[in-house]
Design a protein that fits this description.
With 309 residues, this protein is an alpha/beta fold. The protein is built from eleven helices and 14 strands. The chain has two domains: 2-220, Rossmann fold (3-Layer(aba) Sandwich), CATH 3.40.50; 224-292, Alpha-Beta Plaits, CATH 3.30.70. Helices cover 35% and strands 28% of the residues. The strands form three sheets. The protein has a six-stranded mixed β-sheet with strand order 6-7-8-3-9-10, with helices on both faces. A four-stranded antiparallel β-sheet has the order 2-1-4-5, covered by helices on one side. Strands 12-13-11-14 form a four-stranded antiparallel β-sheet, with helices on both faces. The longest helix has 16 residues, at 165-180. It is elongated, with a radius of gyration of 23 Å. The chain starts with a strand and ends in a 6-residue tail after the last helix. The protein binds adenosine-5'-triphosphate. The site of adenosine-5'-triphosphate has 13 residues, from strand 2 and helix 1. This is ABC transporter ATP-binding protein. Residues 2-232 form the ABC transporter domain.
């Protein structure tokens, strides 16, 4: 569906995309996960031929994407980060307007507009102006405008930023449904939970480059961390910290404000070994829990920094 090869985009001295490569297949929900400023929006604007780039190539649906590739553009739906609707028009009129850009047949246009409004759950707001909608509902309207013409490829740039949990769930469920109905989706986000929840494949981006690509399981399999054990309300000195660090399978520890985080490679009985050590040394502690690796751990191991800012 989309092939990006060695894409380079500079803004003066800043290299926003540094030999970016992506291969997105038909039927995927493809996640671009990266912190703010990693180049996700720039990549999308290049894909849509809204931005000129310095080097590389972009092919969509088997053809080179150019500013005048109108046939390809007809088959793409875009939901950008900033809501782009007309303030003077009602919810219905907005969705109908965007539908009219692609669909000329009046009956079909009306049916598609109604379908999109129901799809995002804005039936009760048909006559309302965008200014009367909450942030979450406004984003749903933005989505309805982007998908109303039933495009083959839907590109969504952080559609859930600053959205309440109810609208967020509605949006995520909607994306899964659009995919079930046959659309390929490209989804950018800096929320790892969302990407894990809906994406079939994920590229982790930082500084304009793809650091790793795979399913969430494949990405987690690429790193050393098998589990992270957290122990709260524990008072430890340097000696004990050193001894814990030397326990089998431990490869990293963080200790701050009486909270100990131990990163271990995947092995059986990790937690038991740690608890046994604490018991032997008669060290008191509070809540203990073990977590499987997250995409944040993948990002942390590759870049040395947290995904979240
Ligand atoms: N028009 C511009 N002029 C100069 N620099 C820009 C411009 N647009 C983006 N940048 C810079 O390019 C880099 C990539 O930005 P981009 O917006 O693509 O990242 P992003 O991953 O989408 O982040 P965000 O989630 O904050 O939008 C950043 O360092 C940003 O400051």
């Amino acid at each position: 569906m989309v092939t990006i090869t060695n894409l380079v985009k500079r803004y003066d001295d800043l290299v926003a995309l540094d030999h970016l490569n992506l291969e997105i297949k038909e039927g995927e929900i493809y996640g671009l996960l990266g912190p703010n400023g990693s180049g996700k929006t720039t990549a999308i604007n290049c894909m849509l031929a809204l931005l000129k780039y310095d080097k590389g190539s972009i092919q969509i649906m088997g053809e080179e994407m150019r500013p005048d590739s109108y046939e390809i553009k007809k088959n793409i739906g875009v939901v950008m980060q900033n809501v782009a609707v007309f303030e003077q028009m009602s919810v219905w009129e907005n969705v109908d307007y965007f539908c009219g850009l692609y669909i000329k047949d009046k009956k079909k246009r009306k049916a598609l507009t109604e379908e999109a409004i129901q799809f995002v759950g804005l039936e009760d707001y048909r006559k309302k102006r965008p200014g009367k909608l909450s942030g979450g509902l406004l984003r749903r309207l933005n989505i309805a405008c982007g998908i109303v013409h039933k495009p083959k490829l839907i590109i969504m740039d952080e559609p859930t930023v600053a959205v309440d949990p109810q609208s967020r769930n509605k949006i995520l469920e909607g994306i899964l449904e659009l995919n079930r109905q046959g659309s390929t989706i490209i989804y950018t986000s800096h929320y790892m939970e969302e990407v894990e929840q809906i994406c079939t494949r994920i590229s982790i981006m930082d500084k304009g480059r793809v650091l790793a690509t795979g399913t969430k399981e494949e990405l987690k399999g690429m790193i050393k961390t098998g589990e992270t054990v957290t122990i709260e309300a524990i008072a430890l000195g340097d000696k004990e910290l050193q001894e814990i660090k030397e326990l089998p399978h431990v490869f990293d520890i963080f200790y701050e404000e009486q909270i100990l985080k131990i990163r271990l490679s995947g092995a059986k009985h990790n937690l038991l070994r740690i608890l046994h050590y604490l018991e032997e040394k008669d060290i008191a502690f509070g809540r203990v829990y073990s977590e499987l690796p997250t995409l944040n751990d993948v990002f942390l191991e590759i870049t040395g920094k947290e995904l979240r800012d």
